[in-house]
Amino acid sequence: MPPATHRVRVCRLHEFPPGTLRRLNTLPPVAVFNVAGRIYAIDDVCSHACAVLSEGHFDGTSLECPVHLSRFDVRSGEPLCPPATEPLRTHQVEVIGGEVIVHVDIGRPL
């Protein structure tokens, strides 16, 4: 059985320019990114120290944890440098009628 998801509207696509991010105050918290016109979503909690990742530096494809400076690829959730070694969960994203929708995966443990 697939994990349970909750559909969350982020914004209109034209309100979300490339190179920006948005935080969803969902459970779990999710960070949503526009990378060169493609939208990605990952858990917004560092897999190393539980820091809020969206408060870190986003350089267009990677996000730096504001606590211990681990970096993650926002397209895949994969850690790019230590101390983090575990990937972040990714969430399905779709654009329907110009609306950015994230399917927040609530069925898997953090």
TrEMBL record:
> Pfam families from the xrefs?
Rieske (PF00355)
Q: Which UniProt keywords apply?
A: 2Fe-2S, Dioxygenase, Iron, Iron-sulfur, Metal-binding, Oxidoreductase
The record places domain Rieske at 8-102
UniProt cross-references to Gene3D superfamilies, sorted A to Z:
Rieske [2Fe-2S] iron-sulphur domain
Give the matching PROSITE patterns.
RIESKE (PS51296)
User: What Gene Ontology molecular function terms does this protein carry?
Assistant: 2 iron, 2 sulfur cluster binding; dioxygenase activity; metal ion binding; monooxygenase activity; oxidoreductase activity, acting on paired donors, with incorporation or reduction of molecular oxygen
Superkingdom to which the source organism belongs: Bacteria
**Listed InterPro entries:** Rieske_2Fe-2S (IPR017941), Rieske_2Fe-2S_sf (IPR036922)
Q: Does the keyword Iron apply?
A: yes
Its recorded name reads Bifunctional 3-phenylpropionate/cinnamic acid dioxygenase ferredoxin subunit
- Organism of origin is Saccharopolyspora terrae
Source lineage: Bacteria, Bacillati, Actinomycetota, Actinomycetes, Pseudonocardiales
